[in-house]
Every structure is written in structure tokens, then in C-alpha cells.
Amino acid sequence: MGLWQSFVEVVHELIPWFDGSIATILIILIKAMALVMPLMLVVAYFTYAERKVIGYMQLRIGPNRVGPKGWLQPIADALKLMTKEIIFPTKANIYLFLLAPILAIAPAIAVWAVIPFDEGIYVTNLDISLLYVLAIGSIGVYGIILAGWASNSKYPLLGALRSASLLVSYEIVIGFALVTVVMIAGSVNLNVIVEAQKGSILHWYWVPLFPMMIVFFISALVETNRAPFDVVEGESEIVGGTHVEYSGMTFAVFFLAEYANMILMAVLAVVMFFGGWHSPFEGIPYMESAFSWVPGIIWLLAKTSFFMFLYLWVRATFPRFRYDQIMRLSWKVFLPFTIVWIFVVALMTQLHIGPWF
Amino acid sequence: MTFDQILFYVFSFWFIASSLAMIFSRNAAKAVLFLILSFFSAASIWILLEAEFLAITLILVYVGAVMVLFLFVIKMLNIDKSTLRAKFAGYLPLGLIVAAIIIAEMTLVLGGNQFGLDVVAAPARHAADYSNITVLAMQLYTTYVYPFELAAVLLLIAIIAAITLVHRNELNRKKQSISEQVNVQAKDRVRLVSINSPNKENK
Fold first, then answer.
1. Does residue B176 fall inside a structural domain?
2. CB–CB of B132 and A134 under 8 A?
3. Residue A61 DSSP class
């Protein structure tokens, strides 16, 4: 941290215009690049992991031709998509057609600004970071809706309609599930929420909020259009949904946005319910000191990887839900359940149960 | 000019420009998108004013939910533009009068004579650890808790009323019973019948 502080000071001295505001923006840009570059690399290798994991689960090998053990497969995929032609449908609205992928990926990356990776390691420490995550995350739906509308084609429109109604309903469920976390932690600042889970593995919020964690994870699957809730793409019914008319890099951007969102939801689950950067061996004698050298970011990434693996596991396991069943799950099962659980949490808060309240 | 002022003018420019573009746009979907841009500009100005909770709520509620439903409706409706444009110019005098009245009222209520720097002092900048949401929550849940609860109940009534309005009698619609569908057994759907085949005896 000392090195970074001196670097910030040097930048501020070199660029003193507007009371250092330009230098501040430059520093923020450097931080953002330091976050987005690894993120895109993780996204690329997440697709590789997905193909390998699902491959092994279905008794196949998965990609193994490009590079040793297929390690260069995502690079080859990226090169292929970049060099492919971008086809514009004749009657499409070109501006909105091109705006849609941008609107899909911009929120998927912007949300990462408030995620705390370790104590004091974040792009920005926003006081209302959880609300920011929900607000910016809710913009992502415009990418899909506009893609469906601007393509001027049947199947994309059907996919867009499905996604619009699905995302709006499940945002409510996610909001209620996260309200319980806010009730326990007493703050909407992600840093404070993680700090409040300090102690041991039993202090993490998955213990009192176990049902909410399940609800959050399933809703996250819907929000990111993942199997078994990927009716937006639903190959067997509407060909490829909103992406039908997109090719080359415009399609790749949608792809990146989807995977960036998946990783984001995994990180959020860890921050909200699994103690963020805290070590699972905290509070256990000997183990705590034996693992105290591991930086918090390693624990965060390890827990995130587990949730990312869950996404792939679920995809390889369950058949696709029917559209009306997903809607029913949201409005008639999850929503009443989360509301009831809010009252349960309020009661637990009043009775000071366990180490959490 | 400080950097804050530059930001303010940039956001204000986009606010006004996108609002105008929203009004003059002929395509309803584009109009909604310009409205979203103007919401974002307003939210940015609010963040400059240290009202970050309001700003995020504006984006969360209006951009994240209300405008999505707007786009949804626009996609579903087949708007006949020719009938809309037929009498468009005829509304101009009435529209101008209404606009003039609104501008006059807003100048009287919100203008410089009420909120000018000589009437109300410029608000002081808060420290970096100032929490807008905490201050707002303290006000909402202590001083104004009854109006706040009343507003919530009013919204609930509105939701129930809207559902009741579109709720039809059971007779008029076909309905799926999903629990029945899920709990169906093979013996409910498939009947295995053993038939004595007459051809067998002939062979």
C-alpha cells in the first residue's frame, strides 16, 4: 500500500490541474484497468472451464486440441470472433442494434467498481455500494431488450420479452433476499457487510440466512440467463433468443457480459453470505495462525471459484424450466418466502440470537 | 471554474439535450432511451449535490423498472403513427399555454426569489464520511414515520386495486393447475389394455 500511496502522490504532483481532479480521474482509470483486464482474462478462461467441466460431467474430454490440454482454446475463440464479419439485418435499427451490446457489457463491468476484494482493496468505497450494485445491475436488461427490438426479427423479440419480465420479477426477489443481509449487518456498504462477518465460519451470514442464500443463488441464475433458466436463449424453442441476429464481435460482447455477470453474482454471494475476504479458519486455534499468511483476496477468489463451479454444475445437471414455471417460482414461492424471512430476521435481531445480531 | 462546475455544466447539458431529444424524437423506443439518458444526467447532478441515495434510487426505480416496462409496452403496442400525427399541430396553442403556466409556476415556487443565494445560504460541503442514507433513514423512520407508513399503505392499495381491475372471473379463462401437473402419475395418463389379438388364433 505504501508504494501505491507514493505513486498516487507523484501523479498528483505531475498533473496539478483543477486541484488534482484530473489526476484523480487518471488514478481511477488505472484502478479500473487493473480490474477489467484480469476480469476479461478470467471470463475467457471461465468459458474454457465451463466446456471442460461440463465435458467431464458428460463423460467427454472437452476442448483439448489448441495448445497443451486445450489451454489456448479461449484465445483462439476470441481471435475467431474478432475476425468474423458483423452482419446487420437489412431492416434492423443500426444504432440501437450496435448500442445493445454496449448497454449489456457496460453495467456488467461498472458494478465491479464497488466490490471489495480485500481489506482496503477496491476501486471505490461507496457508502451505498449495495444499492449501486442493484441499480447498475438492473440496467443490464436494456442490452437484451434493445437487442431483441432493434434486430427486427421474431425470435429475438420473443427472447427479449421473456427476459424483460423475468429480470424485473427476479430483481424484486434478489432485493428482498439482500435486505435480510442489510438488516443483520446494519449497512449497505459492502465493506462494512464483510467486516461485520468477522469471527469464524459460523459468523458468516450463510448460517442465519441459509434459505436466503439458496434463493439468492437461484435468482442469480435467472438474472444471468443461465441454465436451467436460460429461456431467453432457449435453443429448442426460440433458436437463440436475443442473439440470433448478432455475429462476430457484437455477439462476443453479449457473451462477455453474460460471463462477467455470472462472476459478479458469485462474488456477491461470497461478499453477502460467505464472509468476503475472511479466512474460513478464523477462530480455530492453530489453524488460524497456520493460515494467517494467506492474503484475504485468495480466500475471496477461492470462495468465488466454488460458486462459479456451482453454475457449471447446475447447468450440466438440470433440464430447462418452462417459462411459466419460472414466473410461478418467483412470484408465488420466492417472494412470499423472502418476505416471511424478513420478519424472521427482524425477530432474530430483536431476540439477539447467535453471534450475528 | 472548478472541476465540479465543469461536471455540473456537462451533466446539465446532457440533461437538457436528452430531454429535448426525447420530446422531438419520432420513434417511441428512442424517446424512451433519451428519457433514460436524462434520468442518468439528473442522477449525476444529484450525486454532485451529495444526494447519492436519491440518485441511486432514481436509477434503481425509474431506469431499472419503470422504463423497462415502458419499453415492454412500446414493443407490444402497434402504434399507428398517422392518426397520432394528424391533429398534432392543433394541440400547439393549448400546449404552449400549459407550458407557459407551468414555467411561470415553477419560477415562482423554485426561482431565485425563493432559493437564491441571498435567501438561502449555499450548502456547505460535507466530510467524506458523511452518510446521506443514514441521515435520510433517521428522518424517515423517526420524525416522518407515520407519513412514510401511510405512503407505503397507499401504494399497497394501488397495487391491489390494479390487480382487482384486471382480474376476471374464473369462468372466463383457462387455467393451469401446476401442482396437479407436477404431481401427475403415469397411471393417470397412460392406460395399458390387454387385447386378445384375433390374428394369433388364425396362425
1. no
2. no
3. -
Please state the pTM of the whole predicted model.
0.83
CATH number assigned to the domain comprising residue B22? 1.20.120.1200
CA distance A147 to chain B (A): 12
Q: Count the domains in chain B.
A: 3
pLDDT for residue B202 is more than 70: no
Do residues A88 and A259 touch, judged by C-beta distance below 8 A?
Answer: no
Which residue from B minimizes the CA distance to A97? B30
Do B4 and B57 lie in one domain? The reply is yes
User: pLDDT tens-digit profile of B44-90?
Assistant: 999 888 888 888 888 888 888 888 888 878 777 766 666 666 677 77
Q: Is residue B190 part of a domain?
A: no
Range of the domain at B119: 80-125
B20 lies in some domain: yes
Distance of alpha carbon B13 from alpha carbon B6, whole angstroms? 11
Is residue B73 a part of any domain in this protein?
Answer: yes
pLDDT of B188-200, one tens digit each?
A: 888 888 887 777 6
DSSP string, A238-288: HTTGGGTT--HHHHHHHHHHHHHHHHHHHHHHHHHHS-TT--TTTTSTTHH
